[in-house]
Amino acid sequence: xxxxxxxxxxxxxxxxxxxxxxxxxxxxxxxxxxxxxxxxxxxxxxxxxxxxxxxxxxxxxxxxxxxxxxxxxxxxxxxxxxxxxxxxxxxxxxxxxxxxxxxxxxxxxxxxxxxxxxxxxxxxxxxxxxxxxxxxxx
Amino acid sequence: xxxxxxxxxxxxxxxxxxxxxxxxxxxxxxxxxxxxxxxxxxxxxxxxxxxxxxxxxxxxxxxxxxxxxxxxxxxxxxxxxxxxxxxxxxxxxxxxxxxxxxxxxxxxxxxxxxxxxxxxxxxxxxxxxxxxxxxxxxxxxxxxxxxxxxxxxxxxxxxxxxxxxxxxxxxxxxxxxxxxxxxxxxxxxxxxxxxxxxxxxxxxxxxxxxxxxxxxxxxxxxxxxxxxxxxxxxxxxxxxxxxxxxxxxxxxxxxxxxxxxxxxxxxxxxxxxxxxxxxxxxxxxxxxxxxxxxxxxxxxxxxxxxxxxxxxxxxxxxxxxxxxxxxxxxxxxxxxxxxxxxxxxxxxxxxxxx
Lengths: 138, 354
Hints:
The structure holds 2 protein chains of 2 kinds.
Chain A: E1 4-9, E2 18-23, E3 26-33, E4 36-41, E5 55-61, E6 69-78, E7 85-87, E8 104-105, E9 107-111, H1 112-117, E10 132-137
Antiparallel strand pairs in A: 1-10, 2-3, 3-4, 4-8, 5-6, 6-7, 9-10
Chain B: E1 6-11, H1 18-21, H2 27-36, H3 69-79, E2 82-87, H4 99-116, E3 124-129, H5 135-145, E4 151-159, H6 170-178, E5 183-189, H7 204-224, H8 227-230, E6 236-239, H9 245-260, H10 271-278, E7 279-282, H11 292-300, E8 308-309, H12 331-345, H13 347-353
Parallel strand pairs in B: 1-2, 2-3, 3-4, 4-5, 5-6, 6-7, 7-8
């Protein structure tokens, strides 16, 4: 059964924000895309760069030379080492989506009241009944 | 070893001097060339006396080789058993600065090729030499010459004023596609820029060795500028490029594409895939050791048996004896390189074959 880790209070990671956390000894980066949370291994599958420290950008595609269709602003993270693009929603790289992907982790938002009942691991947290929390599964 | 019926994709007819072309100019240009004393457009890319320019035993009067169809076909077709030879004329028309004069020279050269070569031997085919000094003129020359189906390709030099991918040149590629002509890029320079990015080198050996850098940059330019996104039918033949620089260059180009592709989002596939689909390379010279295993490995690194084209590069001195096909090429590959791949590349040769 997956371990569930309380890694942040919801208000710590506002929309467009990200937080590097540790769960079961793994470095994980949690993103907030307009209220939806996504968690990826922080280790770039290419050479291990820290994805949390990359540039957040959009997806640029083109139908023909000179045309730049820029969509999904804020949903692509580029590794700070070699600038490879990763889709935050899927973890897949743009250049080689089937072979090169950042590992995804389940993530949810839970009420503090529920967390206090367990079976959650709140390693570094004081959880209060009134607040909401980001929970990562490993 | 010969492959009967081979298509030799790189053979060079020699223009001895401007006198040979005079009948093919109009009166204004004929008189101008004579009165200005423009005797020859010999380029330093292939100086007559350079050993590379011709094997010694093929040199005739004044050191020139390949002066007539009979001389060329005796070697290329009779001895080496090519059924077809594509003539790529390297006379230095690209060096001319005047756009108008360049146009006149290209037209004269192409007409000379028709009358003094193609008309004299049915095994010969030609490449249309175009005045890249002016895009409209280049398109006009393609339109004019392409009516003759014996022209099978558009020919430009590897190094010229601007990188070939620039959008400014695209009407030339559209014209080539309209007529089923690949774009042949041959080693050589119009000497508008130094032949190395470092500046002018001192020696001929540097100039010739630097050609592979020029080819690399042209591959990068054609891909990144989006020529194949816009013109997916375009085929490009790299002629006399040396071949074996390609895998290591693609290794680098693919690697950086992964991080930099957002600059050129129309490049939506890895560059090596675009090379596999759009580029072909002639097999002489093949820059590899004589060891057949090394040749075999070098060809494996190209990742496709579809991209090499048989070519002797006659009369250039790239190999000794009859070793047009380097040792290490399998019989199946030989047949592909000599016949299947050229037919797949040159649509006008396919029409002939039907």
